[in-house]
Amino acid sequence: MQAAQNELVTRIGPGTPCGELLRRYWHPVALLDEFEPRLDPAMATRPLKAVRLLGQDLVLWRNAEGRYSLLDRDCPHRGADLKYARHEGDGVRCPFHGWKFAADGRCLETPAEGAGSTLCQRVRQRSYPLRQAAGVLFAYLGAEAGPGSTPPELPAFDCFAAPATHSFAFKGLWRCNWLQAFEVGIDPAHASFLHRMLDEDTDPGHTYGRQFRGASIGEVDGERWPMTRVLRECHSPEIRHEALGDKAAGLTRLTTLRIVNERLTHVRVTNALFPYTFVIPLSETVTITQMHVPVDDRHTYWYSFFTSFDAPLDKETMRHQRLVNTQLPDYLPKKGRDNDWGYSAEEQATRTYLGMGEADINVHDQWACESMGAIQDRTREHLGTSDKVIMANRRVLLAAIETVQAGGTPPGVLDAAAAAALTGPDTIDCIAPAGRWETTWREGCAAKRGRAPWLQRSGAPAADGPGALTVVPTVVPTDVPTA
User: How many helices (H) and strands (E) does the chain have?
Assistant: First the structure.
């Protein structure tokens, strides 16, 4: 990649070409958990926090009626920091001169101006649309008027359709650019090396952080193979990618085939939604939908949505497991460059390929992304055939930037009909007969969906049929359950 192209796809601040593209989509801005006093005691008295998204500094707060609001962080009077605003229930007030703002950005008071002043009627703080889905607040930072000013719809994905009992959301910060974070997720080959375990294979089921030891669906000569054995012994996969439905939807299926023997093939089906979402299997019954959200050019929050097609999720346990390596209230990683990501040479020689633990493979991906540098220099790469998905995605990204510059609509910007049709998507790990692997994985996905109690209750459609997404309005109760 040329240096100019690398600059084009990594710089996402206001006014940049890629920034203008990304402002056509909804972006996760916070977990609802972040306003839970049990997890952040400060929220009990002042539910307001500073956030940064797409290189913009903002304040996110909840008023006394339970309505969430996202405002520019600098006061429109003289630029003081509204992170320190007084929270007054029906609005926030800048401590510099007492200007007060409502949830929709209206200036309610300019007390230093005295009686009869109409200045507040001529001032408005920029307020951004919000919507809630799957325990996460999404923000739209598009233009206030003209192209890109109308928010699109979210797809009718399973992660948004599942009830709260069967879904859980979490996030974490990586100190790197958004694109290198996303590219790890759509790279099927890396798991055979980065997540390889060297010691004896075990099958701990759904144990957190060790999912690559879990067994795939299917058997080899009557024996169920853990994923780590599949990845270790079948490390040169055939990788396929294909657009699903209308290319304008921006959804791509990734199929990774690992030849076990002449009779059997391991099949891993994942999906990528433009610009930065991918959907992968965590286990036989749980799917992860993950988004890599640009904080700025050098920082990224990943948001993971866990969806169960079986029993309700134990969200307290899931949260506790992840907080071992994550620091609240800002969901910062406890491992990083300053402590070598927990690297152990002894472990690398005896237990894991990387040497950075097996209790949380998310650290493996964090290292891969952050060790490249805050912004990867793609002019120094030497890509191979195993990088075909990476190359294809970059071509789509460059084309989408050109489309926006020409006044067009990029992929993944969905109207109501297109969003309702974008359901599922199906994802699976399975071992299949070599001659009918495609039929086998589809049957496995259908069986998984057929057993999902919430799909049966809701009468939800199959993953390849039309669907509908119920979006919770911005106004939400203050006692949102978190477990």
Answer: 13, 22
Cα–Cα nearest to 176, from 375, 390, 29: 375
Q: Is residue 336 one of the residues assigned to a domain?
A: yes
Rounded Cα–Cα distance for residues 294 and 291 (Å): 10
The answer to whether 186 and 17 are in contact (CB under 8 A) is: no
CATH code assigned at 224: 3.90.380
- Nearest Cα to Cα of residue 441 among 284, 210, 213: 284
State the DSSP H helix or E strand holding residue 416, giving kind and residue range, or none if neither.
helix 416-421
Sign of CA dihedral 395, 400, 405, 407: positive
Chain centroid, CA 259 distance in Å: 31
Are 121 and 163 in a shared domain? no
Q: Are residues 95 and 187 in the same domain?
A: no
pLDDT at residue 223 is higher than 50: yes
Q: Which structural domain range is residue 54 located in? A: 26-140
pLDDT tens across 113-168, in order? 988 899 999 999 999 999 999 999 999 999 998 899 999 999 999 999 999 999 99
Are 325 and 414 within one domain? Answer: yes
Locus of tokens 């996030």: 171
166: which DSSP letter? Answer: G
pTM across the whole model: 0.91
CATH of the domain at 75: 2.102.10.10
